[in-house]
Prior knowledge:
The chain has helices spanning 2-33, 35-42, 56-67, 86-100, 125-142, 153-158, 160-168; strands at residues 78-83, 112-119, 146-150, 175-184. The chain has a 4-stranded antiparallel β-sheet with strand order 1-2-4-3. It is of the alpha+beta class. The chain has 2 domains: 2-33; 45-184, NADH Oxidase. It is built from 7 helices and 4 strands. Helix 2 (35-42) crosses helix 5 (125-142). It binds flavin mononucleotide. Flavin mononucleotide is lined by residues 44-45, 47, 148-151, 191, 193.
Amino acid sequence: MRTAMKISIVISAAFMILTAACSQKQNEISVEMNPAIEVLKTRRSIRAYEERMPEKVLIDQVVEAGTYAPTGMGKQSPIIVAITDKTVRDRLSKLNADIAGTESDPFYGAPVVLVVLADRNCPTYIYDGSLVMGNLLNAAHAAGLGSCWIHRAKEVFDTEEGKDLLRQWGIDGDYEGIGNCILGYSAQETPTPAPRKSNYVYHVD
Ligand SMILES: Cc1cc2nc3c(=O)[nH]c(=O)nc-3n(C[C@H](O)[C@H](O)[C@H](O)COP(=O)(O)O)c2cc1C
C-alpha cells in the first residue's frame, strides 16, 4: 500500500512538473509568434505609393477594423469618410497642402484617403478619433497595405470649403477633423524604425 502511494505521489509530481514546463513553453511561443503584436511592431509610415487602387475588399476590411476601436463610454463619436474618388482625393490634397504651405502632394500619391472626424460634443472625441486612426494604420499593415497619418484634417474641415464638402457628403453635425489615413500599395522599402527611447517605459513592480 505504502509503495503504491509513493508511486502515485511520484507520478503526480512528475505530471505537475511536466504540465508546468509545457505551459511555460506554450507561453513563450505565443509571446514570440503572436501575429497581432508582430503587426503592431512592424507597421511603419509609408511615403511612396503605387497608383493602382487597392481592392475594395481590403479597403472595407481596414475601414471596418477602424470602427471597432474603443471609444469613451462606447459612444462611437468618430466617423470615417473613405475617399477613393480621384477628384475629391486631389481636392483634399490641395486643401491640405495649402494649409501646410507646400506645393507637393501631402498624400504622397496614395490613391485612398480615410478621413477620420469626431463629434466635438463628446468629451473624449479626440481620443476616440485617434484610436480609430491607430486601428486603421495597423489594420492597413495587417492587410498588406501601406499607410500614414497625415495631419491638418482639423484645419481642412474647419474651412468653409471643408464644411461644404461634409455637407455634400451628407454629413451633418459638429465634426472636427482628427486625421487622414492615406492608404495604398507601398512603392518603397519599409523604413527601419527609430530605436525606442531608453526611458519609454517605467516599471513599478
Ligand atoms: C498625430 C500625427 C500626425 C502625423 N502627421 C504626419 C504628416 O502630416 N505627414 C507625414 O508624413 N507623417 C505624419 N505622421 C507620421 C509620423 O511622422 C510617423 O508616425 C513617425 O515619424 C514615426 O514613424 P512610423 O509611423 O514609421 O513608426 C503623423 C503621425 C501622427 C501620430
